[in-house]
Each structure stands twice: as C-alpha cells, then as structure tokens.
Known about the structure:
Elements: E1 2-5, H1 9-16, H2 23-39, H3 41-51, E2 60-61, H4 63-76, H5 78-100, E3 105-110, E4 113-121, E5 124-128, H6 137-150, E6 154-159, H7 169-182, E7 187-191, H8 194-203, E8 213-215, H9 220-229, E9 234-235, E10 243-248, H10 256-272, E11 279-284, H11 287-301, H12 307-317, E12 319-322, H13 326-336, E13 340-344, H14 348-352, E14 360-363, H15 369-374, E15 400-408, H16 412-427, H17 431-438
Parallel strand pairs: 1-12, 5-6, 5-8, 6-7, 8-9, 10-11, 10-13, 11-12, 13-14
Antiparallel strand pairs: 2-7, 3-4, 4-15
Helix pairs in contact: 2-3, 2-8, 2-9, 3-8, 4-5, 4-7, 5-6, 5-7, 6-7, 8-9, 10-11, 10-12, 16-17
Amino acid sequence: MRIIQGGEFDSYWKNNAAYNHDEEVEISVKKIIAAVRTEGDAAVRKFASQFDKSSPARLEVPFEQAQRALEELRSNEPSLAQALELSAQHIKRFSEKQKEQFSHFEYEMEPGLVTGQRIIPVERVAVYIPGGRFPLFSSVLMCMIPAFCAGVEEVILASPPTEDGLPDRKILAAAAIAAKVADNNNFGIFAIGGAQAIAALALGTESVPRVDLIAGPGNKYVAAAKRLLFGETGIDFIAGPTDVLIIADGQAADGGIEKAADLAAADMLAQAEHDPDARARALVPNTEFAEKIAAAVEKRLKTLPTEKTARASVDSGGLIIIYKTQEEAIRIANTIAPEHLELQTVDADIWVHHLKNYGSLFIGSLSAEVLGDYSAGINHTLPTSTSARFTGGLSVRHFLKTVTTLRCASGEDFEKTRNAAEILARAEGLEGHAESAVARARE
C-alpha cells in the first residue's frame, strides 16, 4: 500500500493511469469474430471446447432449467434465494422510478412548428454474465431487470457452460427470479461464453439470434469483442478492472479514528479481492490516518480468504493520498473518476455538489459500496478506467432510444423556418436540400 502527498498525485497519475491496450488480446478476438461471422454455431462450439468447461451440442437452454435451478436454490440455500429476491425487488423499484424520468412530449416552438420526443425500448437485448472463479449471479438481476422495466420486447441471457453444458446454476436461478419479479418470461438463455458469445449475439448464428444491444460485465476478451463489434450492435460500455476511491476524514464513524480506518480498509479490500488489477484508493487529510488505514488493510488481509488476489491488487496499485485542502481532494477525485466513490466524512453533503466524475456515489459511513453491489437497488454495472468522466452506470436509459419528431403546418412562422433551411442548404452547397425546402414554399 503506497502513501503519497496530494502534491505528488499529478506525477503519479501520469505514470499509472494509462489504459493498457492489449494488442495480443485484440488480435485473438478479431480471429474469433471472423470465425463466428463465417462459421456460425460451429465456430462457437469450437471455441467453447478450447476455452469453456464444455461445448454443449445445444446452445439454447430451456427456461425450465432456470425454474428448476431456482427451486433447488430455495431448497438448498433458502437465505440466498431470499436475499436475491429482496435485491430483485429493490432493483425493480429503482428501475421503475428511473423509467418515470423518460417521457414522450411534443413542444410547439412556434405556430406551425411542433417538435417532439418519443422514448422507444430497444427490441432485442442480450445480457452477458461471466462464469469464472466467481460467477456473478447478482449481475443477472442488475442487467435483466432494468431491461424488462424499460419495456424491451426480448431479453437474452448468455453465460458460459459449466461441465454439464448449462450455465452456472445460481446464474440460472437468478434469471428465473428476474423474470418472476418483472412478470416477464419473454427471454432466452444460451450457454455460450467469452468473445465467441459476444460475436454470436452481435452477428447472429443458426441458433443464436442477432441482438440490438449487449450489456453486462466480462473479462478483457469480452470487453475487446464488445469494442470491436460496436456499430454492428449497441453496447452499454467497455468495462475494465474495478476500482474504488474513499474520501475519509477519520471522524465519520462511531468508534473514532480506529473504527474509521477499519471501515475504509474493509471497503478497499472489498474491491481489491476482485482482481489483481483492481484499484483501491483513499483520500485522507493527514499522515496519521493514512498509516492507520494501511495498518488496518494489512491486519484484514491476514484473515481474508481471498488474500492472494487482494494482496496482489494492494501491492500493485493500492494508494492512499494525503490532501491539504478540500479543493485539492475534489480535484484529485474528479481526475481519478472512480467507478465507486465513497464519502466517509462528517460533512458528506458539502462534498456532493463538487464531485462530478463517478459511477456511483456512496454518501456517509453506513453507505458501503457492497450495498450497491448487491441489495440496495442501484446498479453495480458501472464505468471504469476513468470513463465516469463521460458516462454513468447501467440503467433503464441504456435500453431506451430517445428519438425526435417534427410536425409542421403552413403559416408565417413555418415560412421563416423553411426559408432558413433553404439558405443554410445553399450555403453548404447542397442544392438538393435547398430544392426540397423550396418545394414547400408558399405560392
């Protein structure tokens, strides 16, 4: 865990913030996409036999398998099933509230000139959920439920096959919960993983339908495939390694500075355990508190079951920055543009209005990022690698298209607008445009 002064940050950031473009990954993914484009299902099965735990003869999974998986989960792990169902209800309620913010309208700018907006759901969406060491079954809820609430006609879940040819059982169970909470069974499930899954969904194959948009997390191969296929399909955004930034003053938590340091350490390690490339960072006002956080991190690491991964993350990119003023801290936080930003300060609301770049903001020491990850209702699919500078996290809006309309009626104000279009078209050298406007002139 490295500790630096705020004045050292710019130099540190210049040398450590670059996005690492992996040329070898891109070359491999381009070959996978090309094969799926020409060979379809055969290529998907070939790559599954290379990269996945099995290569099922049938890629589509009957919905009954998801229902059966949910029944097994309720029987074997009832508390987990209940936790997933509570989370699903919260996600649905939050998503419905988001949907309310998007509406159709028509606005008469001038007599005879009526502009408008319509909100239309994307027709067919795919949600990709990785398997791997930690199958992200919570991401099923985070991605599928907002799509359902947006009004998407067909949602497809894609996830890598396990040894039995089916996606992870808990991923299937979560899909059944999402469908039940949304009261919508109009979705398909496919046991396909990796870059070949993204290619199949973006391009379509004999058995995998082509989708209009792909959302959800994934490894660097999945991210590369989404980037390369963007344009042939829509995507939510490109996700990189996860990260957190905690602004803490040592005073917010009941229990004093020791408790505050331990809370910060716990939340830093909650990110660090994801991946050796995960980044856990903190902004604090003095050296004493910084050292206490570093000590608390080390103490917790010794008993953490995921110590190996978390320690690799902390050793390679763990950082505590000591700021001199609130203005300096805000500038640094907005530069880092973290995926998760926590405010563990006594005056948290004072900071809120100055912080501009983050995926999700967690206000107050009780508002742990883990609650956003799982059960509070906000989405955990968030922008990484400083992309919070220009986008927010996954939400209902990703599954909606905002399109515009125009109605015109003849009259003096319409004639002014028509005439302006004619003048502008001729000025740009587009005579056909100008003539189209002239054709509507009053006689």
